[in-house]
# Entry
Amino acid sequence: MSQALQQKKSKKEYKAKSDGTDRSSVFVSQKGTLMKRSEVREHIFRILFCVEFCEKEEFEDQVELYFHGHENINEKTQKEITEKTENLIEHLDEIDEQISAHTNAWNLERLGKAELSILRLATYEILLDEQVPRKVAINEAVELAKKYCKPVLAFAGAVERDARKCNEHGIDAFFPILRGVVTLEEAMKNENAKRNLADTAEQVYRTFTIL
# Structure
């Protein structure tokens, strides 16, 4: 992780509220109407998705076209959306590097455009956006995935009975990655965790292919 990302992450963790709430949950438009933070986030996601199909040089034109089709968004909120999207794109190489570090053999080009846009936005908010606590970034990524009909799977070291609560909060299915009784030290070793996660993910993928 770059020094800039580490510094941003450190500041963010210090400032994030422990209750996981978004400290600026709404924007007030010039007309007095409210736009929820989740709506702003969704507009950023949609723009990210659109620019996946054009060259970086066309970014400004794509943003202008997007807002032309969403005239209900006031200038102040348009500026907020544009600045966050631009900042994300400026750090895209670092964000993709972080995602690639956890996808093992999966090349990002193999991911669907919607899935990749959601991952990029969530990674940006976790590492670089000091206004968004980690819990909120993860929860909102799940909500976006659910809204756009993407299955949400969770992988954990071990799963207890109360883990069923995950299903009540948007997780379609969860899977333990440990194959037997191991010490915490063994389970937390990077090479062991990666291998266990990869093995479990492969079996889940195989299940999907035969359905």
